[in-house]
Design goal:
By secondary structure, this protein is α/β, with parallel strands linked by helices. It contains 16 helices and 22 strands.
């Protein structure tokens, strides 16, 4: 029997969301496949160049209307978005699970987590709109104003499309911008369905343009878009950054993660094993902050591996619409890519503790068993993003070696350490080269704390006050209450009068005078 969500997915197929309404695209359509059943659940359109232009034009008009509202009016509107996201979370969750496979519990959670970001930014954005500085000229007012960039382009991946778009849209809209999202080709219908939460906003303020990378590049390079928020691979991020650089557009990039997970002897191993399973296998390992490299002190290595493998074997794998802990990978291409990474580790000598194969009970679907392997730090899998359900465990001699190995990476998004030793925790916090460090609490976040990384992970921050600044520009303003001649104007004096000599006592003029006297 067809559910209401399936019927809505069929209705939205082949559409874009432009100018406040759903419009059927004139571009070609591509199938959307349920990764648990391999059945077609809808189609998405490859937006044309004229449709991209139409979206950008509508965004420019809507942004000006939005910015004319008071901060309080914008805050009220964003709180209404949060209300709608909470109401729609069950429907959006089912759609997302049918598109990319994650357990419904996780999909449903995204709507509420996104709503939380809108509530946070609705309030923080009206907290301050600039500042007054002590004036450099007596009697004047000198200040900084905060203004929107204009039209923001959001390019979000398949793994957390509702959450990540929510983070970017909440901050962008709170700062006074319009936003156009180009979703992943694996989760286009979810973001199209999500647009109903914004239907009370000015038409065109929030839009969806579907397509492949070419559509994203057209939006990034467009002369009338003004800021970019991108989450994806390092090669794609570099292409986006190059296109944006031609017009000096600010770019928020979160490109890759390869997070270490350190286990020290003082940690409670049974608890750590459960935390490790969550950090490694949440969303089938398709999380930018997944724990992808486990460095375990030799004193507890064997005990941890045994407990960890037991947790992995206990995970229920199946369709995300059933009562499971882990669904399939999002597509056949993702499973193929992941299996190449895993097989390379086995070729290099990895010892399989559990998993490392497709579940035999599924005739269809892109499933893979949660996998634990023992490796050395020099294996390829420890130096790239596996982005799948595998946990490579490496034995270390001490914390020094664990931190050294943790920092031996070209990316630096998050890092984890489990320890009951406060000194070890402080060392990890200060010495690990990453944008995030979790001590005894993996994968959590907070709307009020900035999220982002270092090295090739990218640049910029989402969430927190820093996330709002990502989508604002600063303007210097100086106001004199009266129009009076300035003593520094032309013509310059012909000789040094006493009055002129006193004017030269300012630090800048004093330096200039001394240089002239030297000559």
């Amino acid at each position: 029997m067809t559910t209401p969500v399936q019927a809505r997915m069929a209705e939205l197929s082949g559409h874009l969301h432009i100018g406040g309404r759903y419009v059927r695209s004139s571009g070609d359509n591509v199938d959307v496949i349920d990764p648990a059943t391999e059945e077609v659940v809808g189609r998405f359109a490859l937006a044309t160049a004229s449709e991209v232009d139409a979206a950008v034009a509508a965004a420019r008009v809507a942004q000006r209307e939005w910015w004319r509202l008071s901060s309080l009016e914008r805050a009220d509107a964003l709180h209404r978005v949060a209300d709608r996201l909470n109401e729609m979370a069950p429907l959006i969750g089912e759609c997302l699970t049918r598109e990319m496979g994650k357990p419904y519990r996780e999909s449903n959670w995204e709507g509420g987590a996104s709503a939380s970001s809108f509530r946070y930014y609705a309030e923080i954005a009206r907290h301050e709109q600039g500042r007054i500085a002590g004036s450099a000229i007596a009697g004047q007012m000198h200040m900084t104003l905060k203004e929107p960039l204009g039209v923001i382009v959001s390019i979000v991946p398949f793994n957390f499309p509702v959450l990540l778009f929510g983070w970017q849209a909440a901050a962008s809209l709170a700062a006074g911008n319009a936003i156009i999202v180009k979703p992943s080709d694996l989760t286009p219908l979810t973001l199209l369905m999500l647009m109903e939460a914004f239907d009370h906003l000015p038409p065109g303020l929030v839009q969806v343009v579907t397509g492949t990378a070419e559509v994203g590049q057209a939006l990034v390079a467009h002369e009338h878009t003004h800021g970019i928020a991108f989450t994806g691979s390092v090669p794609a991020a570099r292409a986006v950054a190059r296109a944006a650089a031609d017009r000096f557009k600010p770019v928020l990039v979160e490109a890759s993660g390869n997070d270490p997970f350190i286990v020290m002897p003082s940690a409670p191993i049974d608890v750590v094993a459960r935390g490790a399973a969550f950090a490694a296998f949440l969303n089938c390992g398709q999380v930018c902050t997944s724990a992808e490299r486990f460095y375990v002190h030799r004193d507890v290595h064997d005990q941890f591996v045994e407990a960890f493998a037991e947790q992995a074997r206990a995970l229920r794998v199946g369709s995300g619409l059933d009562n499971v802990d882990m669904g399939p990978l999002a597509s056949s291409r993702e499973r193929d890519r992941f299996e190449k990474v895993l097989h390379r580790a086995i070729e290099q000598g990895a010892r399989v503790v559990t998993g490392a194969k497709r579940p035999e009970r599924f005739a269809r679907g892109w499933f893979h068993e949660p996998t634990v392997i023992e490796v050395s730090h020099d294996f390829d899998i420890m130096h790239g993003e596996s982005f799948g359900p595998v946990a490579p465990v490496c034995r270390v001699d001490n914390l020094d070696q664990a931190i050294e190995f943790a920092n031996d990476s070209s990316v630096g998004l998050g890092a984890n350490i489990y320890t009951s030793d406060l000194q070890e925790a402080f060392r990890a916090v200060h010495e690990i080269e990453s944008g995030i460090v979790w001590v005894n609490t993996p994968l959590n976040d907070n709307d009020a704390v900035p999220f982002g990384g270092r090295k090739l992970t990218g640049s910029g921050r989402e969430l927190g006050a820093e996330g709002l600044e990502q989508f604002r520009r600063s303007k210097m303003v100086m106001i004199s209450p009266t129009a009076e001649a300035d003593p520094e104007w032309f013509p310059y004096p012909d000789e040094r009068s006493e009055e002129h000599t006193s004017e030269l006592q300012s630090p800048c003029n004093l330096v200039c005078r001394l240089l002239l006297e030297k000559k």
